[in-house]
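Final report, closing paragraph on structural work. Over the funding period we assembled a curated collection of sequence-structure pairs, and we close with a single example.
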Amino acid sequence: MKLHLLLTLLATATVAQGAEARHPNILYVLPDQWRAQATGYAGDPNVRTPNLDRLAKEGLYFRNVVSVCPVCTPHRAALMTGRYPTSTGMFLNDAALPGAELCMAEILKAAGYTTAYIGKWHLDGHGRELFIPPDRRQGWEYWKAAECDHTYNHSHYYTGNSDQKQYWEGYDAFAQTKDAQQYLRDHAKSDRPFVLLIAYGEPHFPHNTSLPEYRALYPPGKIKLPPNVPEAMKARARQEAQGYYAHCTALDKCVGDLLTTLAETGLERDTIVVFTSDHGEMLGSQGCPPFMKQVPWNESAHVPFLLRYPAVQDAPGRIVKTPLTTPDILPTLLGLAGVAIPKSVEGEDLSSLVRGGSTVGDRAVLYMSVAPFGPREFLKEYRAIRTSRYTYVRGLDGPWLLFDDDKDPYQLDNLATKPEASALQKELDGKLHAALKRIGDDFRPARSYIEEWGYDVAPYESVRYDSRWPGAKSQSPKRKPAAQ
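Its predicted structure, as stored:
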């Protein structure tokens, strides 16, 4: 079925190529654990991100973007497939994305693209340091990647068909950026478009491994914390924020280098540039310990999303308020690229928002935690929606959180318990149930999904991913993928 669909897409793309201009290039930049608030253009009083601020002025700033499941593997699976975690079974860290799922690189490759992946993969499930052979790379041809490594000053990767472990020189994000710049130069005059995805490990912890010259920019005593960090958490939060912001500013330099290379090679106008992240980082907000994600609050679920495509965007520097969730990204990119969208994709094509004059207004976009793992006092199953103004979260026992994000950006005033918000809550609850109905999710306890998809979880409540845990082996979801 997957081969049949790829052949159909290839035939469609061949006809389209004969009648239309060349497809645009795609440069997709995906850091790990970068929350939406941690940029200059979004108003963070601490962090220095001059290159991202410039990109926001040159492109479009999507202000209401959430990670469909704010943890690494589930987000990446949704990005690659355009489908929801409850549809693919990819709702746990270190699960293996089934080869039967139709993915971004395979779709674009069938449309004539060359495909390149650099950095963190986290979709193989065979072990975080093991070789990922070409038949498990979901269509990515140029490959300098590793399953997962956060040892930023000595991180590993594999390339080509070799199972010989190699190491990035120095701070890995800088080395990965240089490699990506060379790829751009090598393909600048090609008659085929490219998709290049750079998946940085930073600013995910450990924060203290950031480069000293960048940490020096952020003395802990001068870091201004948001009002939703309780007093007891402030000292630790400032200490961690120093390294977190240092990683962010180092990555901002990487973005600047990539943009410079696009300009120098003449690729700028016809290249779609996306900067976003897989999820955020709590850093003490709402009393959650640093490093926390998965939870429904802004610092965890709300991610940055910048898109620049000079050839078609209506105006630079526009703020897009229409919400977007992870499964929408793939169909939106395909829509911008003029590539047919497979029927298996569940997200919505929002490419009209980039061109301007769109009739797409407010939306209620879905995000979730299906089977959270970690300290139970902070984590529980939930389903949530975000609109251009509100965040509404429902737990298994009923309504949990409701925030007016315009009036209460730090989400300190929970309206879910207030009678005056009952009509609003009822309206949003209806939208949440409609969103769940569209994807066939009846919102059950975590154990039910784990059993349905046939997972064996480790003591840390995620998929067993290495030999430290008895019975560790690659685990793909066992239920059959949707017809494509």
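The longest strand covers residues 114-120. The chain has 13 helices and 16 strands. We thank the funder for supporting this effort.
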